[in-house]
Design brief:
The structure holds two protein chains of two kinds. Chain A is α+β, with helices and mostly antiparallel strands. In chain A, a hairpin with an 8-residue loop joins strand 15 and strand 16. The longest helix of chain A has 33 residues. In chain B, strand 13 and strand 14 form a beta hairpin. The longest helix of chain B has 30 residues. Classes of the chains: A alpha+beta, B alpha+beta. At the A-B interface, helix 13 of A face loops of B.
Chain lengths: 775, 713
């Protein structure tokens, strides 16, 4: 035995230092598994060396086999993901967005998206490296790629997706080994076990990912999700590795894993805001870790401060820097005006080449008779807008709608008039001053900006704002007093630079943009109201953006250079607004979070009819339901184990380790699953099936650990030789189930043609187990 | 025996009695002023009236216990339900006993004060701290306002406090006595009542369960299992059963059909007196070939309706230029109409009457549906539907000789069948009609047709049926066996009303589950209210609610808290968290500032009070419904328990010298005095009298954002 240990130790020279440092455990190696525990290591030996007694050679070959297995996993993983990568040769599902955005990077055109830029930048980069020139328009799903080089972008996503099973393998390996640190000898034994008798389970985990049709499908197209999941898994892996370094703080590898965790966190957040959940996971783990350190009275406060600072640097400051850098690159690369301009403030737009505010020249001071656009100062506030539509019946007075609109449009143009409509005919028009009373006439519909004592449509505390009158003749409710914020009576109103408020003469309220989206009758534009509360907020402040007055000389304005931090903050607020603005449409079928774990309904990636090449995103149902079942199983097992511990049953060493693996390793994964799943229940935005995939990764890893421990506990039921057989048989059945179900459902990922599933003769005949699946 | 003197020893906590009396005085005096509908009384009142008339209703705002308590008060006062609750400020007629309507909430509100006193004692703090907590609660204007009207918050707070008090009584009682389990039972019952009054009670219930399971977990190691089982019974099983019991009473009371009938399933409606049951009594149960039926859509959105057809065809071209089949329209119509009748026909036979014996239709059978008044066959084909072009059009088939064959076979698919060959039953079976030729399913799309379709709802057939089952399901509501083969006779038959007899029972559990599900899922369109606010505004009391304004003078009632107490509460919340953080970190480093018993008491205070505040406040941050300031009141009560207890802790454990303690004493008295003064100050807005002048009102507007009303004269 002892010799065997030393050999293994020697084999695993990389780990010996780690193990040697674990001196805090009082008992020493050789004499530990006492009496009853004695049977345990021998049992393990029997397992690990296929029934023969412990021999170095077999163990060596088992170690060898592990490497082979890892290689096999890598090979399988890449081959399943890269197989038929160029099929179908047309735009699938959200490729129309993300592929287009990749092209925007290549063309350096500014756009707006609700996700942070890193994922699309990487897609763009991958496309650029593989010779895609950014000319394909990505108009709508189903468009043929023809001669365009799209395989690079898909391949890049698939490569990242292929890394997921490998990461999962390594994470589970780490998690279940970590607890075996009870004793050096035992840990070595069990490490042997982890490496050699576990492969089947681990492979099960891998297979869960490898052969999960959903996972394959989502990795094969130009989407953000494989990139996001790559960063999530990499972050978790580095975190687990970092936890492993607990006994050698401040060593090089400790720093390496710490920094890698940080980088991956920043990466995850840089792809989608869902990355916040993994940040939360790592944050909780770190807090827990620090709390443990704080309780370690052998560490001085200075040491603890060092630990704390190291984590602040590695997990907060460094990732933040990385994240900000990504945005800096984003802003530097995208310097041409594009479709996303209107979402941003005037200052932001002046940065973009081709925008009318870039190196703009216009009359400097607001004058009567000018044509202007008025932009709300709230971030993503929109332009003051009106159109030929009335408020519907029951919503205030039935007059013309006035809204705020995010896009540039001729309906955003307003004319500035005096209180009494006779314009002075002098060659130089009079300038508008602070305190002047003006009338704003909508250029297109010739109605005046008007307000009155009716409730606003959504913000009931405010008054309604309408367009009223004809050809500029209205009534006394059309009069607004101009005030420059921080100005005095008589000050001129500077175009672009002055913050202006419009006070309604008759009611004393102030023109306000509430930021709430109007229902369908208002074309989902933003509500504009007149607020009786005169507090100065950006919602009630406006600036004059375009200013056209042929009678006045144009002056070049290059004053608007915004600070980098300002545009960073602004782009974030615009993204968050955009995200929460994605409300489900009335007629659209909305996916509910409870649909996901039970695999209730998938997503159609491409193709509807019998003749088309169809790809359907749906998790392998066998595996997903197994995940769900093991989740319940996990909870039961943990409950049983913790009650047993609490009631003080004397458990064998092996059982204690098992429950430790369950509670620590499994607990971490369960937390990860919860953090990536539960928040969706509180979200009001529109949800899709693919939002579950990050949570699914955690769930699958948890399944691996749960089933492994379950099978190992087979000796609770049967005596040793039979329990081993049971364990083996269980592993084989699992493996077979996994492979067979993959074989059954693989057409979902690799594409189907021919008749639909409910008709005979289809490749998926008889597999439509739920009515809600649409293949 | 007789030699023993008959002795009654009673200990009376005079302070407790005094605060209770004060509480009754502040909450109960002049309860019937104002003699007008105040704020949400207009909402709860309508349900009280419906209880008095025993008419069924469904309210998504909360479970029925709260409404029943209010109704009980009204019942005691002899209210007959004849009052039109239509606007805030409407005067009550003399026949309505306003006092009794408002009595029960006010009683609950006053009892909260002694409860808080006792709760502080049970948390192992002194009588002085208990008095402090009671005074803070006593002088809180917002709680007074909320108690004095026919509203539910005070009832909720009462039950929540009672639950915690009785649980702590149980926990603190010596282990040996079995009588302490009666406290546990009371705790469970109060939890059920709290949840039964408002769903919000769930948060406090969960907190209590959390605390209890923590205590129980520590017991698992060394106690017999029976203790754990007892706790489980009292705190989980009993509350659940009681909660169902509230519904049992509710459904028992409300036996008549009413305005919300249509939201419920046909089977449910049939169990109510009047309404549907009047029509459907005596109908044959099994649908047979030749049956005359009306088919009601299972969807209650956008509006309940029946499958309908009429003598009008789809326009040849729609507004957007698409073509149609120009066959007869089939729609869904939300009113009873003779055109809602359809006849079930066996495709193999010609006759439209029921044979003898009747041949029932089973799951999987193929049928044809003939429209009773026009004799057109229900048909579908590969033509885009008028409003939902992705789905197939459904029509009454007319042969225009344009090589468009009839496709009028439908397979009956009973979704809630028990066996494969189950018979199609009136009212009970939910049926999908699957088009045989295209395997599309008859579906209510929910879109209104334009003028040519008389604004009725569109019916389509959709091939890829997605999960939403309710728009696909149809139920036979009215049903009779057809007897006339001739069209003329049949029309007369259809016009005649359906006939009488037997009661159709639905089990209580089925009714309970349906009602509960509907209550949780029915959404009423709630746009923003003038006085709604966001949770973050509550902490600083940025907002108020105007409850009532006198019809001619400036007298008015507002929900405004006592700003001083509010500040004290916020400060103590902050102070507790800071203190707890410091203690925790120091204990972790092995420095024990507090003896274990004191630490235990301190953390228990935090669990109950700070925990209570968190669970009653944080969920609102995630909610998207319309929220009001009064939603914050339960959370606030926890803070009022926290503040004095924290001060006592500071007094005994943080301040060492006598001078510091005296200084604290002075400070506390000063604060209490200002609390009282500020209470007095806002009294006119709390009780609605005396009337204030505009200037005085302006003076009470301590915050810019408060909305205080002035009457222009």
């Amino acid at each position: 035995m002892a010799k065997g240990e030393s050999i293994t130790q020697w084999n695993k020279s990389g780990d010996t230092s780690t193990l040697r440092n674990r001196k805090s455990f009082p008992t020493s190696a050789p004499n530990t598994p006492v009496s009853k525990g004695q049977s345990c290591p021998t049992g393990n030996d029997a397992q690990s060396s296929n029934g023969t007694s412990a021999q170095f050679s077999s163990r060596l070959s088992d170690r060898h086999m592990c490497t082979v297995l890892l290689v096999l996993v890598v090979g399988l993983s890449f081959s399943t993901r890269l197989y038929k990568i160029t099929e179908p040769p047309h735009v699938c599902w959200d490729e129309t967005h993300f592929g287009k955005m990749g092209s925007y990077y290549i063309n350096r055109t500014f756009f707006f998206d609700v996700h942070p830029p890193l994922g699309k930048m990487l897609i763009g980069l991958a496309g650029y490296m593989t010779g895609y020139d950014g000319t394909f328009p990505f108009m709508k799903p189903g468009d043929k790629y023809e001669h365009h080089n799209y395989w690079g972008m898909r391949g890049f996503c698939a490569v990242l997706g292929s890394l997921l099973p490998i990461f999962a393998y390594l994470i589970v390996l780490e998690l279940s080994r970590s607890e075996t640190a009870a004793l050096i000898a035992a840990s070595l034994l069990i490490f042997g076990l982890a490496a050699c008798s576990r492969p089947v389970e681990h492979k099960a985990v891998i297979n869960v990912l490898l052969t999960d049709t959903g996972c394959i499908t989502i990795s094969q197209y130009i989407l953000l999700d494989p990139i996001l999941m790559f960063f999530i898994m990499a972050a978790v892996l580095s975190m687990v590795k970092f936890n492993q370094q607990v006994y050698r703080p401040f060593s090089a590898s400790w720093w390496l894993w710490l920094v890698l965790t940080g980088v991956n966190l920043a990466g995850a957040l840089g792809v989608k805001f869902v990355g916040l959940f993994v940040i939360l996971l790592v944050g909780l783990n770190t807090v827990w870790d620090l709390w443990r350190l704080l309780g370690d009275l052998s560490l001085s406060l200075v040491d603890i401060a060092k630990h704390f600072l190291a984590r602040v640097v590695g997990l907060i400051l460094f990732p933040l820097f990385f994240y900000v850098t990504v945005f800096a690159i984003h802003f530097v690369v995208l310097n041409k005006s594009g479709p996303g301009d209107g979402f941003f403030s005037s200052a932001f737009q002046s940065r973009l080449i081709g925008n009318n505010l870039h190196n703009a020249s216009m009359p400097e001071y607001l004058a009567y008779g000018s044509t202007i656009t008025v932009k709300n100062l709230r971030i993503a506030g929109g332009y003051l807008h009106s159109h030929w539509h009335l408020y519907p019946e029951g919503v205030g007075a039935r007059q013309q709608q006035v809204t705020a609109y995010l896009h540039k449009d001729y309906n955003n143009l307003w004319l500035v008039h005096r209180q009494n409509s006779n314009e002075s005919q002098s060659p130089t028009p009079d300038l508008v001053r602070h305190g002047d009373i003006i009338r704003l006439e909508h250029k297109e519909t010739t109605r005046n900006l008007h307000s009155h004592l009716h409730e606003a449509p959504l913000t009931k505390k405010h008054f309604q704002v309408t367009g009223y009158g004809n050809n500029g003749t209205g009534d006394a409710n059309d009069l607004w007093q101009v005030e420059v914020c921080g100005g005095q009576k008589g000050d001129l109103v500077k175009v672009l630079r002055s913050k202006v408020r419009f006070l309604h003469r008759a009611t004393g309220c102030v023109l306000y943009s509430s930021g709430k989206t109007l229902p369908k009758w208002g074309w989902e534009q933003v509500e504009v109201t007149c607020s009786p509360y005169l507090k100065e907020t950006p919602s009630s402040q406006w600036n004059i953006e375009d200013h056209i007055n042929p009678k006045l000389p144009n002056i070049s304005l290059s004053v608007l250079k915004p600070h980098f931090l300002e545009i960073l903050l602004e782009s974030h607020i615009v993204m968050i607004r955009g995200n929460s603005g994605l409300k489900p449409k009335d007629n659209e079928m909305n996916s509910k979070p409870w649909h996901w774990p039970i695999n209730y309904q998938g997503l159609r990636f491409s193709g509807v009819n019998e003749t088309e090449y169809r790809v359907y995103l749906l998790g392998n149902p066998v595996l997903w339901w197994m995940n769900l079942a093991s989740l319940g199983l996990y909870l039961i097992m943990v409950a049983v184990a913790s009650v047993a511990l609490q009631r003080g049953f004397s458990l064998s060493q092996k059982r204690k380790e098992h429950s430790h693996v369950l509670m620590r390793g499994g607990g971490l994964l369960l937390l990860g699953w919860l953090l990536h799943y539960a928040p969706f229940y509180t979200m009001g935005r529109v949800l899709y099936y693919h939002h579950y995939f990050p949570a699914m990764l955690f769930s699958s890893m948890l399944t691996g650990i749960t089933l492994d421990i379950l099978l190992k506990s087979a000796d609770l039921l049967l005596r040793p030789p039979y329990s081993d057989w049971l364990q083996r048989a269980g592993q084989l059945v699992l493996l077979f189930t996994v492979l067979h179900s993959f074989y059954l459902f693989h057409p979902l990922s690799y594409g189907m043609t021919g008749p639909l599933a409910h008709e005979p003769g289809s490749s998926m005949a008889g597999l439509k187990w739920m009515d809600s699946w649409e293949f | 025996m007789l030699q023993l003197p008959l002795v009654v020893t009673a200990q009376v906590d005079l302070v407790l009695v005094l605060v209770s009396l004060l509480a009754f005085w502040t909450r109960l005096s002049r309860l019937s002023y104002p003699n007008a509908v105040v704020f949400d009384e207009v909402y709860y009142g309508q349900f009280v009236s419906l209880y008095m008339k025993r008419v069924f209703f469904i309210d998504d705002s909360g479970p029925p216990l709260g409404h029943m308590i209010l109704a009980f008060g009204a019942y005691l006062g002899g209210f007959d339900g004849n009052f039109l609750w239509n606007r805030i400020g409407a005067d009550y007629p003399s026949s309505v006993s306003v006092w009794s309507l408002r009595l029960l909430p006010a009683l609950c509100g006053s009892l909260c004060v002694p409860l808080v006193y006792l709760l502080t004692l049970e948390l192992n703090f002194s009588h002085l701290a208990a008095l402090g907590a009671a005074l803070l609660l006593l002088l809180e204007n917002s709680l007074i306002v909320q108690s004095r009207f026919m509203l539910l918050e005070s009832v909720l707070i009462f039950f929540v406090l009672l639950a915690f008090l009785s649980y702590l009584r149980f926990h603190n009682a010596p282990n040996s006595s079995w009588s302490r389990f009666s406290w546990l039972l009371l705790s469970g019952a109060s939890c059920a009542a709290a949840v039964g009054v408002k769903y919000m009670g769930v948060f406090s219930y969960l907190l209590l369960l959390g605390v209890a399971s923590l205590h129980t977990w520590n017991l698992i190691g060394d106690h017999t299992v029976s203790h754990c089982v007892c706790r489980f019974m009292c705190l989980v099983v009993v509350p659940v059963l009681l909660y169902v019991f509230w519904f049992y009473i509710h459904l028992g009371l409300l036996s008549h059909s009413g305005p919300h009938d249509q939201l419920m399933s046909s089977a449910f409606q049939a169990s109510l007196q009047g309404g549907l049951s009047r029509i459907t009594q005596g109908q044959p149960l099994e649908v047979a070939y030749g049956s005359q039926v009306t088919l009601r859509s299972s969807a209650s959105q956008p509006i309940p309706c029946w499958l309908h057809s009429h003598r009008a065809n789809y326009p040849v071209r729609y507004e957007n230029g698409r073509g149609s089949s120009h066959q007869q329209q089939v729609t869904c119509y939300p009113f009873k109409d003779v055109n809602n009748w359809w006849i079930i026909k066996d495709p193999g036979k010609q006759k439209l009457v029921v044979g003898s014996p009747p041949q029932p239709v089973r799951h999987g059978d193929v049928i044809q549906l003939v429209h009773g008044m026009t004799s057109r066959f229900l048909n579908s084909h590969d033509v885009a539907a008028p409003m939902s072009p992705h789905a197939q059009e459904v029509s009454g088939y007319i042969d225009f000789n344009v090589s468009m064959a009839a496709q009028n076979l439908w397979r009956v698919h009973i979704s809630n069948r028990e066996a494969e060959s189950d018979v199609w039953k009136t009212i009970l079976s939910e049926v999908r009609l699957v088009h045989v030729n295209t395997s599309a399913v008859l579906k209510l799309s929910g879109v209104s047709l334009p003028d040519w379709g008389f604004r009725q709802l569109e019916v389509v057939a959709e091939k890829l049926f997605k999960g939403h089952s309710s728009v696909l399901g149809w139920t036979v509501e009215e049903h009779r066996y057809g007897t006339s083969q001739e069209q003329k006779e049949r029309e007369a038959e259809l016009h005649s009303p359906t006939h009488i007899d037997i009661d159709r029972k639905m089990s209580f559990w089925a009714k309970f589950l349906e009602l509960q599900w509907k209550m949780l899922t029915v959404k009423q369109e709630d746009s923003e209210h003038k006085y709604s606010s966001s949770p973050l505004e509550w902490i600083t009391m940025e907002t108020n609610i105007a409850y009532w304004l006198h019809s001619s003078t400036n007298a008015q009632i507002h929900l405004i808290g006592n700003p001083v107490s509010w500040g004290v509460a916020n400060l103590s919340l902050l102070a507790y968290q800071l203190l707890a953080a410091v203690y925790l970190v120091r204990r972790r480093r092995g420095i024990k500032d507090l003896p274990d018993a004191v630490w235990c008491r301190f953390s228990c205070l935090g669990c109950v009070c700070v925990g209570g505040w968190v669970v009653n406040f944080v969920p609102f941050l995630l909610m998207e419904k319309t929220l009001f300031l009064y939603h914050y009141l339960p959370a606030l009560c926890y803070l009022y328990v926290l503040s004095p207890a924290l001060l006592e802790h500071a007094h005994t454990h943080l301040l060492s010298s006598a001078i510091q303690r005296q200084a604290l004493g002075v400070c506390v008295s000063a604060v209490l005095l200002t609390v009282f003064l500020s209470y007095r100050n806002f009294c006119p807005l709390t009780y609605g009298s005396p009337e204030l002048s505009a200037n005085q009102l302006q003076g009470l507007r301590w915050r810019e954002t408060w909305d205080i009303l002035y009457r222009h004269r």
